Structures are given as C-alpha cells and as structure tokens.
Amino acid sequence: MLDLNSIEEKIIKFIKDYIVESRSKGAVIGISGGIDSAVVAALTVKAIGGENILGLILPCESKNEDMNDAIELAKKLGIKYKIIDLTNTYLEFLKDNKMENQCNLSFCNIKPRLRMTTLYFHGSLNNYLVVGTSNKSELITGYLTKYGDGGVDIEPIADILKEEVYKIAEKLDIPKNIINKAPTADLMPNQTDEGEMGFTYEELDEFIRTGEGKEQTKSKIMKLYNQSRHKIIGPVMLKLDRKNYLE
Fold it and tell me: Could you tell me if 38 and 174 are in contact, meaning their C-beta atoms sit under 8 angstroms apart?
C-alpha cells in the first residue's frame, strides 16, 4: 500500500537538503496550472517556505483557464508569482523563420525552451534553484522537451508515478479544477498527454509497476523508453585514455 506520508516527507527533505547544500536562497518553479507543477510547488512550500519561492506563470499561446488556475494556486500557497507572456517572443521566432501558424513539433518545442530560459534567468537573478516538475511516468516515456521542461536543477517527483501524483495532490488539497483537467504539455491546440502517447497513464503506470499490460501498449512504451534515453542522461562525452588529478 502506498505510504503517502513517507513519500511526502522524502520529497520535502530532498528539496530542502539540496537547496541548503547548494547554498541557494530559494527556488523558482514554472507553474503551468497543471497537477505536477501544483504538487511540486506545494511540497516546495513545505520544504523551504513560500517566502523563498518564486512561481513563474509563463503562458505561450496558452488557455486563459490554465493561467487563472496557476494564479489561484500561487495565491493559495502564499508564494510570490510573476506572469510573463512568451507568446509574442515565440511568434517573432516563427516569423523570422517564415513558419507562421505552424504546429510542427520542432517549432512547438521552442515554447518549453523559452520557459526554461526565463526560469534560469530569474533563478540566476535571485540565486534560486530551478525546480523541475517531471514525474516518473513522463521520464520513462521521454514525455518532455530536451533543454525545455527537462532543463532544471532538481526533479523532486522524478520517482513518483502519475497515479501517485494524483493521490498526493488530493492529500495536499490541490484545487479540484487542477486535479480534474486532462494532462497536457500545452504545446499545440487540443493536445493531451494520453492522446499523443497513444495509451493512458493508468496503462503506463501499471506496466511500470508490474510489467503487465496489453502487448501493443507494452511495445509502444518500450519504444518510447528506448528512443528517449538521450533526454535523461545528458550529452554523450568523448573520454580519452588519460588521467588527471581530479579523477
């Protein structure tokens, strides 16, 4: 049986310890209006206090309801927040590359990379760490943008399945409108995580936990897993056969 109290305590300790050890003054978190960022923000408040957190709300062709949910959450948690609309920056990039009104994924991935740049800018200004919001289910399938939402300093819920994120959200009293909305990367109109992956989080989490599931679904998951390892392990570096005094 899932021990929510133990998991919550471990996540809180992980966040607090890493921020203290890195001698950072606090944390900056991108708050999207989705459940993962809501849970991470709430746990970070428990770890270091709301006064040491900056929540950045970074719409980029985003729905107003997501921005409103993010604002509501920041107020509920008592953290400082700032809204920076990246839509015009994104559209200017498309214009410069003669790609207006495109839904090509290569261009849509600019959105999370713009968000990452903004998060690190504010992190550097304040000596804050950038706290990521990717869960285990996303990381297993590579459902993140390299150097976008994958570009962070720490990932507190990296070993937490999506089904567990929902249970923790209930325990933390995250607003119902955030819990009940369909998960989306917010890259394209009408995009949902499950629609793009081709299976549900329930099916994915069952396979991660037990290795069981429909053969077609298991095959899809393993394909995504094998294709996306480069997003998780970082750049492959050439190593020459020589010693140095640091090794």
Answer: yes
- The answer regarding whether domain 4-233 maps to CATH 3.40.50.2000 reads no
Please say whether the beta carbons of 163 and 148 come within 8 A: no
Give me the pLDDT at residue 17, please.
98
Q: Note the pLDDT tens digit of each residue in 100-149.
A: 555 677 888 999 999 999 999 999 999 999 999 999 999 999 999 999 99
| Domains in the chain: boundaries | 4-233
**Rg over CA atoms, the chain:** 19
In angstroms, the CA 109 to CA 3 distance is 36
CA-CA-CA-CA torsion sign (184, 200, 104, 147): positive
pLDDT of residue 221: 97
Per-residue confidence (pLDDT) for residue 167, from 0 to 100: 96
For residue 37, give the nearest of 177, 180, 133 by alpha carbon: 133
Contacts of 33 (CB under 8 A, 6+ apart): 57, 65, 66, 67, 68, 69, 70, 73, 178, 181
| Separation between Cα atoms, residue 13 and residue 19, nearest integer Å | 10
pLDDT less than 70: residues of the chain: 1, 98-103, 247
Spatial distance between the Cα atoms of 44 and 156, rounded to a whole number of angstroms:
9
204 contacts 162 by C-beta, under 8 angstroms: yes
Burial of 224 (0-12, 13-18, 19+ CB in 10 A): middle
